[in-house]
Write a structure and sequence with these properties.
The chain has one domain. Helix content is 54%, strand content 0%. It contains three helices and no strands. The relative contact order is 0.08.
Length: 69
């Protein structure tokens, strides 16, 4: 509560609010890029290669599928 009162009374916007948004944006772009490169590619992008810095994520089979065999 003190932070909200300080922000409203001081007239300055706290830097840590902006830092949370910036870090969140960077995390969203990073996670989205990893997910996109590891998914099926849209038409015309099938032959593109994964960049070296993107880790390959392999899908795991659910335990129910192995138990049915």
């Amino acid at each position: 509560m003190y932070l909200l009162l300080e922000a409203a009374a001081g007239g300055k916007f706290p830097v840590y609010f902006v830092a949370v948004y910036v870090i969140g944006f960077i995390a969203a772009v990073t996670i989205g890029s990893i997910a996109w490169y590891n998914s099926k590619k849209p038409v015309g992008w099938e032959d593109t290669k994964r960049p070296d810095y993107i880790p390959e994520v392999k899908a795991e089979k659910p335990p129910e599928a192995e138990a049915e065999k």
